[in-house]
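Hi P.,

Sorry for the delay on this. The queue was packed all week, but I finally got your sequence through. Input first:
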Amino acid sequence: MSVFLDHASTTALRKTAKTALNDALEMLGNPSSVHSQGRTTRELLEAARDTLAQACGADRSEIIFNSGGTEGDNHAIKGIYWKQNQQDPTRRVIITSPTEHHAVLDPVSWLAANQGAEVHYVKHLRNGMVDFADLERLVDQHSSQIALISLMWVNNETGVITDIPRVTELASKHSIPVHSDAVAAFGHVPINFAESGLTAMSLSGHKVGAPIGVGALVVARSAKPASLVHGGGQERSLRSGTMNYSMAASFAAAAGEAVNELAEEMIRVASLRQKLEQAVAQIVPDVIFTSADAERASYNSHMILPGTQSDALLFLLDQQGVCVSAGSACQAGVLGPSHVLIGMGYTQQEASACIRVTLGSTTDQSDIEAFTAALAKIYPVALQATPA
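Then the structure:
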């Protein structure tokens, strides 16, 4: 039986989410219909909106259901940029980070290549934390021209937590909208949209135990980003189309449970990670835990094993029945040097020798022991497999 330690890529479907989904699938109706069955499905959808809003500290009207984090990032970045640039054509600067998920980096690059956006990347410290001195410099230098800032709440690869309220406080001095990809944060660290000062925040269901294919973009009531999809005017006219009430109900059930368990789960998972990292350090004395001295999410352990290559490590561990990753699983299976580590100042060689071990609600001590036993077995082989 495989040991799954790649919970940042996706995690187990929660029983509550499965039950909510199955119950909703038994219902028949379109939430936009005015007859009784339509109203029944609408009530289910709105109950899900209430639950999710409470879980992330937002107003119910700020929850825009969608297909997940990638859609949310694209909608927020393009929609806010287009709206800002339409109101003031001189606002064409986007500030983001070289360590963002490609769901942020790629639409930003697209806007630069096709819409005249000017992109500036904030520097990072060696431990993965945002260099706030550099961020302040960029904001001061381009303040009146900035259309938006987009910085993720928790890095999906390293687990490093960004001080989002500090970002929004800086941005608010110049009325700059801020978006955050909170996919790796929601359900894993405490977040509160209302207190964050954000304009928009992206969430994904399958990271907290809902099915793949549902998420939400949380959009402040005062914000009116341009829509990517036009039609029937659903979801505040920000995402037209028949609303998927069954998936929304499943997402809300999973999110509510994950947030309710969060305080205890953070402590439990942090203890398991500590044991894992202590064991790895015994096996690989020169291991580098890339963000050990930064504030990071408790479920993430990101490490460089010098003298190895990520692809060999993943293959050899998989042969032992252990599933981990080298970074994001959202790049169509493409494996290369970690752009996150490159952005943190590591070399190409170091960025090609990393693995990410991420824990979840189903992880227990036996999984940690299985991983460390497998690593002890394959590490000498991985060293030999790496060209000198």
